[in-house]
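Fold this sequence, please.
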Amino acid sequence: MTIDEAARVPVVIVGAGPVGVTAALLLARRGIRSVVLERHRDVYPLPRAVATDDEVCRILQAAGVGEEFAAIARPANGLRLLDARHRVMAEFRRTGHGLHGYPQTSMFDQPELERVLRDALARRPECELRGGVEVTGIGPDITGPVRVTYRDGDGEHEVWADAVLGCDGAGSLTREAIGAVWEDLRFEEHWTVIDVRTTADVRCWEGVDQVCDPDRPATFMRVGEDRYRWEFRLREGAEQPVRELVAPWLPPSYDGDFEVVREAQYTFRARVADRWRRGRVFLLGDAAHLTPPFIGQGLCSGLRDAYNLTWKLARVLQQGAPAGMLDTYESERKPHARHVIRLAVAMGWAMTGGQDGAAALRRRVLAAACRIPGLTELAGRDLSPPLTAGPLVRRGVRRGVAGTHCPQPWGNVDGRRNRLDELLGDSFTVLTATEPGPSLTALAHSLGIRALCVTDLGDDGTLAAWLRAGRADAVLLRPDRVVMDVVPAGGRDFRSKADWAALLHTTRSPVPAERTASLLRSTTL
């Protein structure tokens, strides 16, 4: 079939929710043009996702909306487990300033976030949003440009793309187009979600409350200045009116303003698509995975997908990196997403107690475990596990910090004071605990990356402490700030550093063999 070059773009994104628009912004930052196809003409007005963590705030920063998001978000204290009488069983505290430079947990209104993202999209000449369209077909060619067909008020159209990102939700057409099916992780419960606006003095601790009641498990959180969310597991038969359900949180006999913004019933499921890619067509967000909401990681996982894939796609499309680099998207993100989903399922069963004969026993075990010193602090730490080992993450016997994100303190480079990611830009970077020697500096220069000592960044000691805790003299950071490789502390075995030339060449166009050999011969500090 002849391709109309006028209808060809580097990337087509199906779906203009937070994941799709964030992906477009991250690509635009790297100079990659995209067309975003969305069936709605405007932002969907009702709230859905309400929580994010500090690592994902860092992704929004990379997309260019960090400050705008901070202005609409509300820091949260963390999670409390309550018994059926609303007595506190345990607190999982989250701090107001995490390692990534933002509150560890933030509450927000999804329509407000989507408006922030769309406003940013409108400012980027690399992005085009086509709303009010229905995507009717994708592919099936897996060896060349992908044909995407869509329908609008003017009829049928087609566009050809070097890559297609399916950010089109749980009922994804893209997932169907690549022949992916769901793997069921065996969790399914029916809940009602109620969003309310009121100026009442609602009983609230500025965090999330999970009521561990076998008869009526519930979740409650404050989302905004006058906005609250309740979630209740549905019972068989007749349901109580909203005011009766939320009465324990309201002042006695309250009869003031109380607006139900949304009341909807959901089936919470745990699922992962069996494949996330076919050729140059990829699945992201709810198209690739579904999680129960108990640890607030649904949208977070989708934004992590976008961050992981976009920098790799940009290097393949723009810098001639081998196409095999794109294989690492699924191999890195799928185990990570599966871990988070299983954690959400485990938390859900522990907190709601389930509905079987062992429910009471589980609640007693949970209550006893919450009294173990230090356990709740440990459980309240970062919910994002390290990436598994692979072509872009080197992990030996001592895992240390490999596969994790480095912290993001404020720093100062070349007279500029800003958060770390803004100072480092979009390239690979070597961070060292002490001043890098001439050979390491020369190697970094030859590879087109920077070598920086953390003491020269002007931070508050966060990075130095992190390197010491990870027993590292130096780390190689990817553009998404994941630690790609580590130089161990205290030894003279820099074999892993010596391989950086070959390692980095998997992310860029090949160089002559004699050039690689020359680099590998000069790799001692």
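DSSP finds 16 helices and 25 strands in the chain. Residues 374-380, 510-525 have pLDDT under 50 and may be disordered.
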